[in-house]
Amino acid sequence: MSVFNRDSADEFARGARALIVYPELTGGSALSADARLDEAEGLALAIGLQVVGKQALRVRAPKAATLIGGGQVEAIAEQVEALNADLLIVDGALTAIQQRNLEDKTKVKVIDRTGLILEIFGERAATAEGRLQVELAHLDYQAGRLVRSWTHLERQRGGFGFLGGPGETQIEADRRMIRDRMARLRRELEQVQRTRGLHRARRKRAPWPVIALVGYTNAGKSTLFNRLTRAGVLAEDMLFATLDPTLRQISLPGVEKAILSDTVGFVSDLPTQLVAAFRATLEEVISADIIVHVRDIAHPATMAQRDDVMRILKELGIDTAASGRIVELWNKVDLLDNDQRAEYQNIAEKQEDIFLISAETGEGIEAFKAHLAQRIGTANLTRELWLDGGEGEALAWLHAKGRVETSEEADGQIRIVASLNAQNWGQFDKRFQLEN
After folding, report:
1. How far apart are CA 354 and CA 345, in angstroms?
2. How far is residue 309's CA from residue 331's CA, in Å, rounded to a whole number?
3. SS3 sequence of 178-230
4. Nearest Cα to 118, choosing from 276, 245, 11?
5. With contact defined as beta carbons under 8 Å apart, do 174 and 150 qualify?
6. Of 44, 256, 399, 402, which has the fewest Cβ atoms less than 10 A away?
7. In 3D, which of 416, 398, 397 has the Cα closest to residue 408?
């Protein structure tokens, strides 16, 4: 079934039958071929496609015309016809010529990994900022390609029409319109960036510590975010369930206020256009006081996923080796068998910045929160105070604004050892004017 007979991009995108092909290139992804195919299937399902087949192909020398060999192209074309597929997904990067040639050979629409991820992001972006970022990334991706239709610039639906369109009739796109649109988007995003900078500066003056959640997509960040903040952020077993950044207040023992930030999930071979376009959002991570790396420890490719996340953090300018800001959460321990759990627990006990948790069941969450409070509290000032029995208001204030480490009675007075930041100590001294 040829996609070029479709009249409606919306009709085609949902429920289309997709065949996934992963070209294994020398020195390619750190993920295994099976892991890449499973991840590509997850991406396809996230956009509502029906996966009817998937396979990996060894590619010794990439072909300029089609990326894969001629015999492999013929075999894929036969498989497309046998499976009655509407769409061929190539889990790799294609040039415009390679994409066109594969479409000519297979007689169906072809989309590469970057195009698929951008399509998902285009449909998921919920805020004005998110839509600006994704559209800029999409235009950057398409700027040097043969383009079938620019009607997405006026469309209201999510996505960008990679999965369908009116065919070849609009291939002569107005490139000046594209450049002008990109320039406008960049100006609008610069304004967003300035606004975010002002908000961050205001928070720093407060000062409230900021904790940023990062991790591979579908690692459980949003489930953890909801558990910690009682927010209602979308948390589904689906790749890129969260796209737009979310900030909420979090309650930690002995900490007056902290801000928790949930960010877009990372993925292997995250398109460079998206890293660039989402830099304004990801600056929340760059400026965070603590970065919490949430890992799906039950995933067979957990180490490769960790490497991908750390690589992207380095691209953002974060020194992952020396920053000392990163805490690892090994999530989904409820999915481990007893032997795996014992092995990981032994590793975590030897590392002060690794915690085993289940965001789904709540296991390990309290120990993690206590660690966060301790990390934040290291910047606080600890003082000893003697309070009279009638100064209960001062004691309550200390409990509310900081961490009371010791409270004991002696000779009719209460000895207090409390930890507060410098600003709160100033407020305390001004309000209660105690002689200590």
Report:
1. 9
2. 15
3. HHHHHHHHHHHHHHHHHHHHHHHHHHHHCCCCEEEEEEECCCCHHHHHHHHHC
4. 276
5. yes
6. 399
7. 416
Q: How far apart are CA 252 and CA 389, in angstroms?
A: 28
Q: Quickly list H helices, 47-127.
A: 70-82, 96-106, 113-124
Q: Quote the pLDDT of residue 46.
A: 84
Any idea what DSSP says for residue 46?
H
For tokens 């105690």, the residue is 434
CA distances in angstroms from 238 to 31, 39, 434, listed in the order given: 19, 10, 56
The closest alpha carbon to 85, from 18, 21, 12, belongs to 18
For residue 420, list its beta bridge partners. Answer: 381
- How far is residue 215 from each of residues 47, 104, 388, measured CA to CA in Å? 21, 39, 49
Distance CA 359, CA 223 (A): 6
Calculate ∠ Cα 11-16-18, nearest 5°.
155
- Bond prior to 62 in cis (omega within 30° of 0): no
pLDDT tens for 276-300 read 666 656 767 877 888 999 999 999 9
Task: Please state which of the ranges 32-36, 66-70, 262-266, 350-354 shows the lowest mean pLDDT.
Answer: 262-266
Check: CB of residue 210 under 8 Å from CB of residue 289: yes
Tokens of 206: 């407060």
CB–CB of 261/247 below 8 Å?
A: yes
User: What strands, in cross-sheet order, belong to the sheet with 403-410?
Assistant: 381-388, 413-420, 403-410
- Please indicate, yes or no, whether the overall pTM of this predicted structure exceeds 0.90: no
Taking the CB of residue 98, how many other CB atoms lie within 10 A of it?
A: 21
DSSP 244-304: S-EEEEEEETTEEEEEEEE-PPB-TT--HHHHHHTHHHHHHHHT-SEEEEEEETTSTTHHH
